[in-house]
Amino acid sequence: LDLNEAPDRKMDEHITSGCVRHTLDLEKTKKEKQKAKAPKCGLPSCKNKEGFELVRCKLCHRSFCLTHRHAEDHRCPRLGFEKKRREVSAKEKVRLAHQRRLKEVTNPKGADKIPKERQFYLEVEAKQKEQKTICFDKNWTIGKCIDVACETMGMENRNNDPQAAKTHLIGKKNKAIFPFDIPLYLLVPALSPGDTVFLGSTFA
User: Where are the alpha helices (DSSP H) in the chain?
Assistant: First the structure.
């Protein structure tokens, strides 16, 4: 029945035709309903017409037939986004690591507790530890520097144990093992501010 058609007129035409005209095609209606209820793959180009179950994509949240259920098979628009996000995350980790390293260089551990004229910066390396820039007092002995470096690096220091292997500060450029009782400033130029030293029992 059209919007502007009178119901009575339609009924008259139906009765006059011997109940032939304007009848409801039940079979056609049933088929249309079945077609409407049939599962439809979310991929427009999918030609699967047989009965199948739909699988929901975890990325784009659309439903697809078994043939196109994988993100690669239906060219999921979120697949590229997920890969890009992982790449950005990796870059972000590098950026944050660089930022932490820059902070260590510009504001080394312990620098706020030592007068500027006595600050002595060293790059400290150790086995299985991240390199750190540590600020020492130039009047400290090597033994005191080792105590501070071990604490900063999160390493065990057993130099007070006669039976344990000693932890040393070893110059990276000359492989020199510096004596425990010598102040830092007396080691210049064998050990100068900004040099890299290794913290351990032997040089790695």
Answer: 7-16, 26-37, 77-106, 142-153
